[in-house]
Amino acid sequence: MSTPRQFPRTGIGYDVHRFAEGRKLVLGGVTIPHARGLAGHSDADVLLHAITDAILGAAALGDIGQHFPPGDDRWRDADSRELLRLSVDLLSEAGWALVNLDASVIAEAPKVNPHAAGMRLEIREATGLPIEAISVKATTNEGMGFVGREEGIAAIAVATIVPVEALDA
Predict the structure, then answer these.
(1) Is residue 132 part of a domain?
(2) Number of helices and strands in the chain (H, E)
(3) Would you call 84 helix, strand, or coil by DSSP?
(4) 110-124: per-residue pLDDT in tens?
(5) Which residue segment(s) compose the domain that 152 sits in?
(6) 1 in any annotated domain
(7) Which helix (H) or strand (E) holds 134?
(8) 4 within domain boundaries
(9) 43 touches 80 (CB < 8 A)
(10) 75-89: per-residue pLDDT in tens?
(11) What's the rounded Cα separation, in Å, for the pair 51 and 71?
């Protein structure tokens, strides 16, 4: 049985990275001044990783680790904007178009909202979405859990996709 393609689909992405000394902090493709960056095989951009997973998940194309495995040296220190671009290409090849992104960064520090506009611009460049279809928000964890103890940063994202032919209608 084939999957109906007349309806939009939604995917959810979640990612988390712990803080690490000696790394730059990159969120949403923007380098943010902070004492610590995030640990990871790539640039550890937790926001773009969550967005990438949401896009891939919406089209049932697997996840970021499947397409860009952390054990593969090709992706060591990779720019997550490129991983996002490649995922949008996979989406298109599968006959789907991205139409909306909504994402939240969960962090006690640094303050994310002053950088949200720049993040939206970077996401627009990587995805081709109009800026009004990209939302980036931030919240804290109210001092609770690993985020509250400032051990790391989490992000969650929702992507909406439609069949490419729906855009032509």
Answers:
(1) yes
(2) 6, 7
(3) helix
(4) 999 999 999 999 999
(5) 9-168
(6) no
(7) strand 134-139
(8) no
(9) yes
(10) 888 899 999 999 999
(11) 21
